[in-house]
Design brief:
alpha+beta, 16 helices, binds MU-OXO-diiron
Length: 672
């Protein structure tokens, strides 16, 4: 029975999403709970030839076929591009081809092999085999193919639409969760609401294949991307760079944050109690803790958080002379998903022969970059008073790693006039042409902004530095009023969010410190940034120079301390590794792109007094973007199948179309 149940949405004028949400699936791949459902994405291109990109899972085939039929609007289906043979995308291929008997499958040779494995139908006459870099034209649109082995299976390939600069990314950049009508990531708060499920999807589905994902990201780095269309989750048409940044971290096994993922397995609550006490000690030291009971929280959620956090604490009781089963399963998952580059603290419990601690350590023996922190804590049935010191010691070590210089929340005492404060010379070794957070305080309010202008200018006592800041920045005015400021030197692990927090909003409109978990101040009472920094300098202004758009402050350094041994983030490092790659979409239009924050001002002219609404920089920081004129390529188009063959002269007499095998008679001159 067919009923009119189609639900489709346009990605572009020519491309329609014809996928289906599945909210009844209990476990994706039979193992990963999906309480928010999942979408199986498929896309139909209406061009001179019609092209369908992938199919869907068998659970939703009926709705899918109705969507395809509706989107085809009575036309034939000429081509099906198969990117991935996992049945959540390929199960319905046979049923689709029986409905559309003229459809040709475009795929690679590994997919051809898997088609034979999965189906008893011989598709040989209907296959068009492509390899890396091959091109295909459906009329207005031309495509090229990028092989992506092990993202997530060996046969996976991506397809790039050269015309719309659109990437069909297969499982890459997918997300758990039904779309619920929202096709584009920017139609909701993706980073607020969906990032956790995107992380759980990535880490559990392709987390094991970080190297292969990195290889594909390198290939994709050369592509201009207006749209990214994955097989699960929303389509990207803006802010893709922010998501790409997450992929770069996840695939290189780089923690997203300095924090602890604490997972425990406890039968009667004694191990849990010790884990709770340790969590409290960590939090008291300023450490963020994400805590899970392995008997309650499915491993896929804990694994995602293990990828997120820099440190792990694993606490498990001994059971059947081994590790308690839920922790054993979790560790099996962490190892099999190739978790690397983490520091792990271990706590075991055992009423007569504790063994889980050493077994947990041994399980990570072959993992790269795993370091154990502190001595193993070994409980005998229950934590005893005299073992609290062991918990304190582990908490101290982790806290020293994560927030190396915890200091009093507020200046402990106001220095007496003329009192000389400690100035650690090591601070000046951390000064580069870097990026810093400039902070000050006026009338009980705290201000801060990002600068890249701090530098030492005199080594005499007291040492002197200069900073300059844009006059339009509120913090610049506040430094003038306060006559003193702090400089926090940022390190290479500083997240882009910190730059957004201090750089892309104004202290006139918002409290930039609202919601931060720290309140660290130097003796002058001014805040500094305790994380992602390696030094703080407290300075008193001794001279001011007007530099037209900026104000130059010359200041004595009155207090300075090293906060960590993190590497200073240079201005170049920020641009190369922290700042998201600019959204290429504006390059379709003429305008001006801010080199500092990526803001795009559309139009052929930029007013002389223009100020970037995000970062307040002036016209000197803007790059004039003029869209490249598309150069037409001469050639011949096949009147049978639409294949375009670039050719500046005559087609050779023995030429045959690689798609439909027709000869030159079937070709006519064309330009693309
Ligand atoms: Fe969504 Fe690897 O399949």
């Amino acid at each position: 029975m067919e009923v009119n149940m189609h639900f489709t949405r346009k990605v572009t004028d020519d491309l329609t999403w014809v996928g289906v949400d599945d909210r009844r699936l209990a476990c994706f791949e039979g193992v990963y709970g999906v309480p928010d459902g999942v979408s199986y994405n498929s896309y139909l291109l209406q061009d001179e030839f019609t092209v369908l990109f992938d199919t869907v899972d068998k659970a939703v085939y009926q709705t899918f076929f109705e969507n395809v039929k509706f989107a085809l609007q009575g036309r034939k289906l000429n081509y099906l591009v198969v990117s991935h043979m996992e049945p959540d995308h390929a199960y319905t291929i046979e049923a689709l081809l029986s409905r559309y008997p003229e459809t040709v499958i475009i795929c690679n040779s590994k997919i051809e092999t898997m088609l034979k494995q999965y189906f008893d139908v011989d598709f040989t006459d209907r296959l068009y085999i492509v390899k890396e870099g091959d091109t295909f034209s459906s009329g207005k649109h031309s495509f090229t193919f990028v092989m992506a082995p092990m993202v997530h299976w060996p046969e996976v390939m991506l397809t790039y639409d050269l015309t719309d600069k659109l990437l069909f990314s297969a499982d890459a950049f997918g997300t758990f969760g039904a779309l619920n009508g929202r096709l584009f990531a920017d139609e909701g708060d993706f980073f607020g609401e969906n990032l956790d499920e995107a992380r759980r999807y990535y880490t559990n589905i392709v987390g094991k294949y970080g190297t292969q994902v990195q290889n594909v990201l390198k290939k994709a780095a050369g592509l201009e991307l207006n749209y990214v269309c994955p097989l699960h989750g929303p389509v990207w048409r803006s802010h893709f760079g922010d998501f790409l940044e997450k992929y770069l971290q996840w695939s290189s096994y780089t923690p997203e944050e300095k924090s602890v993922c604490l997972a425990y397995a406890s039968v009667y609550g004694h191990t849990e109690n010790a884990a709770n006490i340790l969590a409290g000690k960590l939090v008291e030291r300023g450490v963020k803790v994400r805590m899970f009971d392995t008997s309650v929280t499915p491993a896929s959620y804990i694994l995602a958080n293990a990828f997120r956090c820099s440190h792990l604490v694993l606490a498990a009781t001994t059971y059947n002379a081994g590790i308690f089963v839920t922790m054993e399963n979790l560790i099996h998952d962490l190892v099999n998903h190739n978790l690397q580059n983490r520091k792990i603290a271990i706590m075991e419990n055992g009423s007569w022969a504790a063994a889980s601690g050493n077994l947990m350590k041994e399980a990570f023996a072959k993992q790269k970059g795993i370091e154990f922190i502190g001595d193993k804590i070994s409980l005998k049935s229950a934590l005893k008073e005299d073992q609290l010191g062991e918990l304190e010691a582990v908490a101290d070590l982790i806290a020293a790693d994560i927030c190396p210089a915890p200091v009093a929340a507020v200046a402990a005492s106001v220095p007496a006039a003329g009192e000389k404060l400690p100035v650690d010379d090591g601070v000046f070794k951390n000064m580069t042409y870097g990026v810093e957070v400039l902070t000050t305080r006026v009338d009980g309010k705290d201000y801060g902004c990002i600068i890249n202008t701090a530098g030492q200018v005199a080594a005499s006592d007291p040492r002197k530095i200069t900073i300059s800041c844009i006059k339009k920045n509120h913090t610049c005015d506040m430094v003038a009023k306060a006559g003193k400021f702090n400089i926090s030197i940022l390190t290479e692990d500083a997240p882009y969010a910190l730059f957004e927090q201090f750089g892309f909003q104004s202290g006139r409109d918002v409290d930039k410190f609202a919601g931060v978990s720290y309140d660290d101040r130097t003796l002058n009472g001014i805040r500094y940034i305790p994380q992602f920094t390696n030094a703080v300098l407290s300075c008193e202004v001794i001279d001011v120079r007007d530099l037209d758009t900026q104000t130059l402050y010359i200041a004595n350094v009155v207090e300075a301390k090293v906060l960590s041994n993190g590497k200073s983030c240079t201005y170049a490092y920020y641009h190369a590794h922290i700042k998201p790659k600019k959204n290429p979409a504006p390059e379709q239009k003429e305008g001006y792109l801010c080199r500092v924050c990526g803001y795009f001002h559309e139009g052929s002219e930029l007013p002389e007094d223009f100020t970037c609404p995000l970062c307040k920089h002036g016209p000197e920081e803007f790059e004039h973007i003029v869209p490249a004129v598309q150069k037409k390529v001469k050639g011949y188009v096949c009147t049978v199948c639409g294949h375009f063959e670039p050719c500046d002269g005559e087609l050779p007499a023995d030429y045959t179309c690689p798609l439909c095998h027709h000869g030159p008679d079937s070709f006519e001159p064309a330009e693309q």
